[in-house]
Amino acid sequence: MLAMWSFNYVAGKVALRYFDPLTLAAWRIEIAALTLLPIYFFRRGRAPLAARDLWTLSYLGLFLCANQVFFTVGLAYTTSGHSSMILAIGPVLVLLLARATGIERLTSAKIVGMALAFTGAVILAAENGFDLRRSPTLSGDLLTLLGTTCFTFYVVYSKKVTKKYDSIAMNAMNFFAGAVVMMPVAAVRAIHFDWHSVSWQGWAGLVYMAVISSVVAYTLFYWALRYMEASRVAAVNYFQPVGAILVAAMFLGEVPTGHLVLGGVLILLGVYLAERAKA
Fold first, then answer.
1. Which helix (H) or strand (E) holds 146?
2. HEC string for 90-132
3. H-helix or E-strand containing 13?
4. What average pLDDT does the chain have?
5. Furthest-apart CA atoms within the chain: distance in Å
6. Which pTM does this prediction carry?
């Protein structure tokens, strides 16, 4: 799972050389849903879907869909290192939302952890200045942060149904809902997009993002949440950005900058303190 998500940044950057961000995001969701369709309906032991959970699974799918769109579009306007570090802030945002909804309470250690994480995020954003018109990464950073926020809502509100359904059911229903919403966008982009201009590398990047990252990795993520300790699953948050940066350096030539290293250290330390305080 860690390796799959680390390589997802490379796959996304390669695919974005041939696809515009919106087309890539829309068709990533559609292909993921089409891949999950036979897996969900033709497997044995499929638990029946309760009608009362349809609305919950639908709006969860919208949050997941928004996360995928903002991540993909944001990746087009920032570096893999920035993107992975901003995504690592997710657990801190989950903690804030959980506090706002009365699920958890804040402690001094959590507050310190959140402060460190957000300080690291500010350092990342400051690397190229705070002028959206001049900074080559700020708009992408903000879009990625918006996508991470959407996933935060998904994580918190999915607790209502995660214990009722297995990992395949959760992943399938979420992507089905997202595919329905994105279908008009995917159809319009399909009509106006020059598909003949896409090389095999572009197709490989799209298929990787849709099948490996969205279907396989997310299914493993849900399975891990169901059968492993939360602390062990949370470790992915610490190592996944490191893996992404190393992979991006090897395959994309993205050299880590001082802002990325300092901001990343503060973000990961902050997330670690906030997560440790929850244990």
1. helix 138-157
2. HHHHHHHHHHHCCCCCCCHHHHHHHHHHHHHHHHHHHHHCCCC
3. helix 2-15
4. 86
5. 56
6. 0.86
